[in-house]
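Journal club prep, shared notes

We agreed each person brings one worked example of a sequence with its structure written out as tokens. Mine is Putative Fe-S protein. I'm keeping it raw so we can talk through how to read the token line rather than staring at a rendered picture. Sequence first:
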Amino acid sequence: MSTPIATIAELWRYPVKGMRGERLDALQLDAYGIAGDRRWAIQSTGAPRGKPMLSGAERASMLLFSASGAGAGQSTVVTSPNGAQCSITDPALLNSLRQHLPGGHDLKLLQSETPMTDVRPVAVLSTATIRQLSEELGQPVDPRRFRANILLAFPSENEGFAEDELVDRSIQLGAEAVLRITERDPRCRIVTLDPETAIADPLLMKHLDRRHEGHVGVYATVERTGWLRAGDPVVPL
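Then the structure, token by token:
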């Protein structure tokens, strides 16, 4: 086997599209992507044309809600901005969402066996890229802005955007799982939103457009299922 080029620094799952996610020590890759990732979504008659499922990019207030517990045998729980918790299927959730969405919204809960992502099922980013962006901007950049599932730690001497070099290659993570890195990740308005407050600041997006063609991180698809764990080695195949 080849020498590891990185390790897994963080793992994230977003049970409900557009809401905050949860950081976990281990995740399972199934045939479709991260098990339990974005398998729930909220459909709205007030969503932008052609995008019926609410996301943080279109409705910043979605980021004020957090979701957790989407693994096998687990019930997905949503925490509202006031700290109240309810099951994803509780009608109280849609009522709470309506209070935070402008205008009249007819909301419907959607569930899917496959991730309701916009492009590919898995998003990968590196700590080196976050470090470089922070240096370029002269202020800390929160990696949660990019909503990646897998945050890689390359050797300290690696420059940012090292993950871009993996496009069109396969990588093994841990003992079993294999991802195919498919393309760079073109970023949208959601990166301008503070992951804690949902307050917008256009500076980051302007910087990405000017310096990095609007791209940060990479997309991936699943070639072989298996478990991922924080600290696992990453090996190119």
